[in-house]
Amino acid sequence: ILWLALAMWVYFDATERGKAAIGWALAMFFVGWALVPLILYLIFRDVGARTAVAPGAGRRQYLYIVSFAGFATLVIGLSLLISTSIARVISEDAIGDEGYRQALASSVTAIIIGGAIWLYHWLRAEGRLRSIREDEEFRATFFLHRTYLYTLFGVSWIIAFLSGMWLLGVGLANAFAVEDVEPVGWLPALGPLVVALLAVGTHYLFSFETTSYKELLSRFEAIPAPAVIGVSGAVEARPVPAPPPAARAPAGTTERRFCSH
Questions:
Q1: Phi, psi (rounded to 5 degrees) for 51
Q2: Are both 90 and 189 inside the same structural domain?
Q3: Residue 234: which H helix or E strand, with range?
């Protein structure tokens, strides 16, 4: 989870600066143990064309990073609880008493700690967003707020898709009596599937579809986008010279017309 939080810092910071946020975050998440992606990002985050960062970046990034890490912990705990409980109900041979008690203790701990961290920081983030009066800081904070929601949506849909494919594919194999395929091999996939769909539904209903969110979105769209800095050799727009006016006959004279007939 701490590694996820560090990857999310790179993701949100790169998002604010207009960098390739997804690429940097994936590099940090998968090969960040070598610290090379983190070092490279710290070098290049202030190099080249980038969006000017509004005041209060540290505080708003902290709230959304910790909120995301807490929600991830909550999701992992709920998924583990549902999956191990399903496996236990299906077959006692799949997971023994000791293993089930350990999984139960771990999942409940993750649910309590992750849920408390997520709820506290998420409520603080929403309250802070509504209280900001300065337009530049509000726009940057709402942009990060919306990025958080879209990222959560995307990750939840990916989890739902993968677990749903496993549930359907292995379930059909079990229905067709494929050898060595048992219900305990596919029914526990209901855990992450249900939790992911629950995350999508709750955030959609209580975040995107609320009146307060739509009001904040209207204010966000009315504020001009921040300036792009670090652009060298900007080419100024030069007016194109207009063509000279067509020659006209002096006033009081009659134009001569020639006819070939």
A1: -80, 135
A2: yes
A3: none
60 C-beta neighbours (distance < 10 Å), count: 24
Q: Which of 174, 164, 185, 149 is nearest to 64 (CA)?
A: 149
Contact residues for 49 (Cβ-Cβ < 8 A; gap 6+): 18, 228, 229, 230, 231
73: nearest Cα among 106, 113, 126: 113
DSSP E strands in 36-135: the ranges are: 50-51
Q: Dihedral through CA 146, CA 149, CA 155, CA 156, nearest 10?
A: -150
Whether 135 is in a domain gets the answer: yes
250 found inside a domain: no
d(CA 154, CA 146): 12
Return mean pLDDT, the chain.
82
Let me know whether 130 and 214 are in one domain: yes
In a domain, 33, yes or no: yes
| Residues 6+ away with beta carbon under 8 Å from 198 | none
Element (H, E) at 126: helix 97-131
Tens digit of each residue's pLDDT (9 = 90 or more) over 140-171: 999 999 999 999 999 999 999 999 998 888 88
What pTM, to 2 d.p., does this model score? 0.79
Does residue 236 lie in a domain region? no
Q: Are residues 111 and 203 in the same domain?
A: yes
Residue type, 67: S
Q: Are residues 89 and 175 in the same domain?
A: yes
Number of domains observed in the structure of the chain: 2
Q: Determine the structural domain holding residue 89 and report its residue range.
A: 54-221
Residue type, 144: L
